[in-house]
Design goal:
Elements lengths: L1 H14 L12 H9 L10 E3 L5 E4 L5 E9 L7 E10 L3 H15 L5 E3 L7 E11 L4 E12 L2 E10 L5 H19 L1
Antiparallel strand pairs: 1-3, 2-3, 3-4, 4-8, 5-6, 6-7, 7-8
Length: 186
């Protein structure tokens, strides 16, 4: 039950970064975003793809965006509650990176601490936040990594039980997205 609650809270925080799904036709860019996104094969056991919270969307500016949501099943070795990956096209990806980063940081409750990440894409930023949930019954940590490549901004968030953010996993996922973007946007 607590996995569902925290996963739902994290998903709602991240869904605030996009506009609900529209009826726009998928473009080449939308296919590129979908193809570069985190997949179930990238993840450790214990996470399930959530089709109801995933799919092609549009940004507040009408540009294509793709959201991939994975929810913890309560199994597996690592206490991961959820993974979110968003990829969006921005005409000015430098300001888009800051926009996505700041929106996610604002939507996640708790004291965010910016952390250094190795160079990803043409620019990247990251933060962690630890929150107490259900009246302090347990602690959850989230790491969010945002990167930009060409006109695409991607964010990867990993939320887990405990006070230690799953930084290595988030970095590995962000690197995979970045490599796929580099290959498709050459």
């Amino acid at each position: 039950m607590r996995y569902w609650w925290v996963s739902a809270a994290v998903a709602l925080a991240f869904l605030g970064a996009t506009v609900p799904p529209g009826h726009a036709q998928q473009t080449t860019t939308a296919a590129t975003l979908t193809g570069a996104a985190v997949t179930p094969g990238d993840l450790p056991p214990g996470l399930s793809f959530d089709q109801n919270r995933s799919g092609v969307r549009t940004t507040e500016d009408g540009s294509p965006s793709y959201l991939a949501t994975f929810v913890g099943t309560g199994s597996g070795d690592v206490p991961i509650m959820g993974v979110i990956n968003i990829l969006s096209e921005y005409p000015d990806s430098a300001s888009g990176l800051d926009r996505v980063f700041n929106r996610f940081r604002t939507n996640l409750r708790g004291d965010a601490v910016e952390v250094a990440v190795p160079g990803l894409g043409e620019g990247s930023r990251a933060f962690t936040v630890t929150t107490r949930a259900m009246g302090g019954a347990f602690t959850a940590s989230t790491i969010f990594i945002a990167l930009r490549r060409a006109d695409v901004v991607s964010g990867v968030a990993v939320t887990s039980l405990g006070a230690n953010a799953q930084t290595d996993l988030a970095l590995r996922l962000a690197q995979g997205v970045d490599q796929r973007l580099a290959a498709s946007l050459h």
